[in-house]
Amino acid sequence: MLLSKSSPDLPSNALLASFFLLHWLLFTPSYWRAYFQQHLPHCPPDFALADLQRPQWQHHAVRRVIFLLHGIFPIFGAGLAGLILGLMGVSFENGLLAVLYALIFGCVAGILGSLFISVIFGGIVSLLGSFLLSLPIGMAGDVVFSMAKNIAIAVIFSISGFNVETKSIHSEALLTIIFALFIAGIAGSMMNASTRSHIRPSQHRQVGSVVIGVFISVITTSLMATLTTLLARTAATLTDSGLLFSLVYDGLIAVVFACSLALIWGWYTWRWREGMVLGLFSGILLSGFTLLVHLFAKNSPYLELFLVGFHGGIENALLYLLLFAFPYVLAKRIANPWAGIIAGVFGSAGIYIAFMVILERHEMSHILLISIIAFGLGLTFNWWRPILFYPLLSAWNLLVYHKEERRNDTQKSRLFWHSVFWDEYQPLHLLGLDHFLVLVAERNPELGHQAIEYLSSGAQSWAAQAAQIEIDARRLQRCDTVIAISQAHRQLAAGELSGPASALLRSFSRASCDVEAALAQESSYNQRLALNAVEERLDGLLRELTRSSEPYALRFRPIAADWRRLLSDYAQRINKAMESRQELNNPYVIGIPLTEHQEIFVGRSDVSEQIERLLLNNGYQYRCPPLLLYGQRRTGKTSLLNNLGKLLPSTIIPLFVDFQGPTSLARNYEGFLYNMARAMITSAKRHRNVILPPLTRESLNTDPFTRFDEWLDEIEESLEDSQMLLLASDEFSALEHVLTQGYLDEASVLGMFRHLIQHRPRFKILLSGSHTLDEFERWASYLINVQTVHLSYLQASEALKLIEQPVKDFPLRYEEAASQRIMEVTRCHPALVQLVCAEIVTLKNRQHVAERREARLEDVEAALPGALQHGRFFFADIANNQVSPAGLQVLKKMAAAGENQVVSYAELQRYCPADADVEKTIENLLRRELIEPLGDGYRFQVELIRRWFI
Question: Where are the alpha helices (DSSP H) in 117-146?
Fold first, then answer.
């Protein structure tokens, strides 16, 4: 597969690999999921480093990602911050302070975020935190505020009641809070997009988890601040030295941070010893920088910038992540990561906002409003970012399209440059994408097909569908011969599309199939007849397209016109060739059921009268039991059902459903009922020009049987008082395969038919199949009081008409002996009569023109070997599928006895294998209408079948 995300990998170059990671997080989270599914298959995509076991920590992919996220990303952020501040005209010293702060903040905050929250959160904080949170530092020329110290000071002042003039907090402090909320929102949005979890806890559980997390976070933070304040006040009473006070105070801050970090790690992982080591390390690191600031910062301005920047970065990173991590971990355990993000924001940003209000006396409403907007923008980043960038993407995609147009065949396609393949969040239609896909598919069909399949689901599926329709339209347009038309259906995607274009493509697909079937006819006459039927349907399609206002009507109308012209020209050439050779038309149809449009269908008046009598015996208002039309294979059951519209009164509307078609191929109830309804609607329109109410597949998705029953109500309401519906199901026994395979439940499906029989008197049921009533016994509880209609051989007068007058003005004349011989060898079996007669016409067309117009007895005998050869599938089905091995042996022995010879029961006993049941064998042959009793023995019913078994 050219378009695959199964095994993405990172380049060996660290700089390039970091860009890949950033692209995965921002644009294609599916690559992120696939990468860790490959390397850490048992971890979720938003895993935290604290979740990993020791062997997983040693995995090369994990260590490399940690290095890229927390080594390269902070450098990117710091460099970008320095560039922006330089462009803003900030002094070199302030810019250097901001860059140093960005580096250490990105590294520390990113690592802590990856440890406790997720590597996605840590990576975003490493990059955006180092960039955005360092900008206010550079603008202010100082660490805007040391959050830990100022929280403690605020608590001291509020407790003591002192009215001390605090250090003025610039607007950059508020900007820092806004940026922090924005970064947290973006990180949460990235985590949610990368996991794509479909399991959502209940709403009350999510809200509860947020409240719990925030509550515990506020209590813990208040205790930390109060403890720090009390310790600081105690330190202040013990010494008057400002330096000593600062060292003691900063040391206490480091101790509180270290204990908090150890507490979170131990509670998160239950590995308390490692937590103590981590907390001790962080405390020593922060205390060490505090000491260095106080001892050496005054010696050199640049050394002071270095120490202050690193000290402030470490301290604020610890506070930012610890305040966030504690409520996050609590809410995540109770609900999910999304609730953890919300709790973390409230637990951390809430403290910052309280700090601003206490120290600066800011308006609470203003700060809250700005904070909510900042956090909301972050959470919805994946919603507004594609819309904001849409004009730029459109311009880029246009350049890619023109580049693809101008490339030569030796150059690689620019398909993957298009934004649809590297931006998974774009909800808006990318204009021109359908034309781009068509352009690629015309040059590289395989690549184009895979691109369309790749885009067939999602926001850009419209482009895949539009491109597929245009590709199919071009394929149809390139069909410049009848042979090409007959092969067109093999490449159409009609079944994969939806909407009006799908119906159009299905019409063309059916026309192509019918042309292929027409060309497969052996006789020129049948070819011309079938092609004329296709031409008539295309003519009707043209009229519909002319009246239609659908968007694709204008595109497909010229194609339909060209096809109709090609078929008309081809049919005329067939006529001219037949006239020049003075060939006999061969109207006999072999191997396929006759439709209502074929003149050759004759007889069956006795069967149709019996059906009509059973249906109307008591009037439609009374319950009519179901009818079973049964008979041997190829006796014309399907042909009869196809012609019921001509044989029954106009008040009876035949609804023909072929259970050997799509209906029995369904794998769920929606497909079964939809295909059944579609066949019923088509049949009503074809036989009686009655338009039944539509039934869409989508409406069946929720409760298929209830919706189908409602649809039947709609049909009954649309009928006139005198009308009734005959649901004629062909090869009903084919449904047995679907039921035994377990795709559909027997009780549900057959129960629906039973309900239809019992409670819908205007619906009549006619089942057709090769099974006899005895073989339907397992369904007897559903088919209540079924009435049988047996379809056997034609009557002699019907068979004679089929032989001598299959169509009007048939030029071939039969001697009486010839016609009689055909009826003798076929027993008036409709399929065998047509088989022999078709062979006779073929034979006569090989003779001299002077002998061609009359069929004699010797012509019949000469045609029989060819009939046996051309009908071999009919006869082989009897031998292979309808009789047992014992029955096959009996038939072969009986065939050797000769034409019309009677074989006694005693002889049949000798023919039958010793281990076979003679009675059951004979009973099966009788039921299959292969033999018949005569006198004290049995003989073949049909001479032509006997000859096959010789």
Answer: 119-124, 130-132, 135-140
Q: What is the pLDDT of residues 652-686, one digit of tens each?
A: 888 888 777 677 677 788 888 888 888 888 888 88
SS3 of the chain: helix, strand, coil, percent, to 5: 70, 5, 25
- Residue 317: enclosing H or E segment and its boundaries? helix 301-334
Strand order in the sheet with 903-904: 903-904, 937-940, 931-934
Contact 530, 517 (CB under 8 A): yes
The residues that bridge with 904 in the sheet, in sequence order, are 937
- As a whole number of angstroms, the distance between CA 14 and CA 29 comes to 20
CA gap 652, 648 in Å, rounded: 7
End-to-end CA distance of the chain: 55
Would you state the pLDDT for residue 150? 47
Q: From 669, 678, 745, 675, select the one nearest 703 (Cα to Cα).
A: 669
- Would you tell me how many other CB atoms lie within 10 Å of the CB of residue 235? 17
Predicted local confidence at residue 598, as pLDDT: 46
Tokens at 804, concatenated: 């001598």
Which tokens sit at 601?
A: 């269908």
Long-range contacts of 911-917 (CB under 8 A, 24+ apart): 912/886, 913/885, 913/886, 913/889, 916/884, 916/885, 916/886, 917/886
Place of tokens 């590289």: 444
Q: Please tell me the distance from the alpha carbon of residue 308 to that of residue 142, in angstroms, as a whole number.
A: 8
Complete domains list, the chain, with CATH: 14-237+310-385 (no CATH), 413-581 (no CATH), 605-790 (3.40.50.300), 796-870 (1.10.8), 873-948 (1.10.10.10)
213 touches 330 (CB < 8 A): yes
Other beta carbons within 10 angstroms of residue 860's beta carbon come to 25
Euclidean distance between CA atoms 40 and 61, whole angstroms: 9
CA distance 18 to 11: 9
Per residue in 742-756, is it b (16+ CB within 10 Å) or e — as a string? Answer: ebbebeebbebbbeb
Q: How far apart are CA 76 and CA 21, in angstroms?
A: 13
Comparing CA positions, the residue from 473, 408, 477, 394 lying closest to residue 436 is 394
Report how far residue 581's alpha carbon sits from residue 563's, in angstroms, rounded to the nearest whole number. 27
**Helices vs strands, H then E, count in the chain:** 43, 10
237 C-beta neighbours (distance < 10 Å), count = 7
pLDDT in tens, 312-349: 777 777 777 777 777 777 777 776 776 777 777 776 66
Q: How far apart are CA 608 and CA 766, in angstroms?
A: 12
Cβ(347)–Cβ(221) under 8 Å? Answer: yes
The answer to whether 768 touches 728, Cβ cutoff 8 Å, is yes
Handedness of CA 374, 342, 110, 426 (dihedral sign): negative
For residue 721, with 0-12 CB atoms within 10 Å meaning exposed, 13-18 middle and 19 or more buried, which class applies? exposed
Helices within 669-815 (DSSP H only): 669-688, 704-718, 735-741, 746-759, 796-804
The C-alpha atoms of residue 298 and residue 292 are separated, in whole angstroms, by: 10
Alpha-carbon distance of 719 to 655, in angstroms, equals 14
Which H helix or E strand runs over 470? helix 461-477
Q: Is-contact 586 524, C-beta < 8 A?
A: yes
* CA dist., res. 766 & res. 625, Å (int): 9
Other CB atoms closer than 10 Å to residue 358's CB: what's the count?
17
Whether the Cβ atoms of residue 353 and residue 367 lie closer than 8 Å to each other? yes
Q: How far is CA 339 from CA 194, 211, 329, in A?
A: 16, 10, 10
How big is the chain, counted in residues?
Answer: 950
- Put simply, whether the predicted model's pTM sits higher than 0.70 gets the answer no
Q: Are 322 and 264 in contact (CB under 8 A)?
A: yes
Share of the chain above pLDDT 70, in %: 74
